[in-house]
Amino acid sequence: MSDSEPGKLSGLRNPSYGNDEARKIPAFAKETFSAFDSERFRELLLSFLRLRHSDCVIFEMTKKRLLLFDIDGTLIHSDGAGVHALKSAFKERFGVADDLHDIEIAGMTDSGIVVSILNKHKIPATNENMSAFLDSYVHFLSLELPRRKGKLLPGVLELLRRLKSRPHLVLALLTGNVSRGAQLKLEHYGVWHFFEFGAFADDHRDRNRLGPFARARAYERHGREFAASEIDVIGDTPRDIACGKALGARTVAVATGTWSRDRLAEHHPDFLIDDLSNVEKVIDTLGW
Questions:
Q1: Which of 2, 74, 91, 187 fits as disulfide partner to 192, beta carbons 3.0 to 4.6 Å?
Q2: The pLDDT of residue 6
Q3: What band does 274 get if pLDDT is binned at 50, 70 and 90?
């Protein structure tokens, strides 16, 4: 709702018709009142105008909304497939074994993680080194996913099915994964087709800079600018919350990753949900 707060109406007249009703009634109606001077007709016309107001309310409530989902810890658990792929890629490309225990992973972009690993070992983070690392990572990720006992998180499949059926909702991704990694993961778990587009680590190393890429792609697809108040960012880490706030979007934190509900609450998301298993409640709570 471009120039108003979420859930509030803009550009609608007061639905209660008082002493100034005549000013709100079209000229043709005033003439009809004069011609027929019928109290019954007046009541019918006012009922019609109230119905038209209800139509406007329904239209406002179902305006398009852009939902930007994180992947790891929000939609899926890959049982460590990504971390193991990073380890294997680093060893293959640079001949170094590292368990990555001191590298921050959750909520980071793949490109940011690669830079951290290279910096740790004093390897220049050149475009060539980063591209080689990420190419190898994607290769090993394709091998690791079927080996691991990963899963879709509770409620995710039903939620995506329900949301996809609602024409006013646009489902997309805002994730720290590179695009090839995101596709591998979500195709493996059977949900890639639910998402129209995404913003990825290929676009920028800084997660907080990914939001504008998602908005631009939404404009390309739908021919309209999504205001910040029409966007939800859904994720499981403080970095998802920060990314949403940087965009000015509504933030929805889901406590299904490595961060507890209490720790997520410290970052003040607009909504904080234990998980997505109660699909009906999630949809009602968020007004989707």
A1: 187
A2: 37
A3: very high
Domain parsing of the chain, residue ranges? 21-55, 64-78+150-286, 81-147
pLDDT at position 127 is 95
Whole-prediction pTM: 0.78
Mean pLDDT (whole number) for 235-262: 97
Distance CA 180, CA 203 (A): 12
Look-up of token digits 């709100």: 24
Quote the DSSP letter at residue 72. Answer: B
**Distances, alpha carbon 120 to alpha carbons 29, 56, 74, in Å:** 76, 58, 28
Burial (CB count within 10 angstroms: exposed 0-12, middle 13-18, buried 19+), residue 100: middle
Pairwise CA distance, residues 238 & 202, whole Å: 21
More confident call, 82 vs 13: 82
pLDDT at residue 261 greater than cutoff 50: yes
Task: Give DSSP secondary structure letters for 187-214.
Answer: HHTT-GGG-S-EE-TTT-SSGGGSHHHH
- CA–CA gap between residue 183 and residue 189 (Å, rounded): 10
What is the third-level CATH fold of 64-78+150-286?
A: Rossmann fold (3.40.50)
Cα(12)–Cα(239) distance, rounded to whole angstroms?
37
d(CA 106, CA 257): 8
Mean pLDDT of 142-152: 97
Q: How many CA atoms lie within 13 A of 34 on its CB side?
A: 8
Give the mean pLDDT of 187-215.
Answer: 97
**What are the DSSP E strand ranges found in 62-122?**
65-69, 76-77
Question: Which residues are bridge partners to 67 per DSSP?
Answer: 171, 232
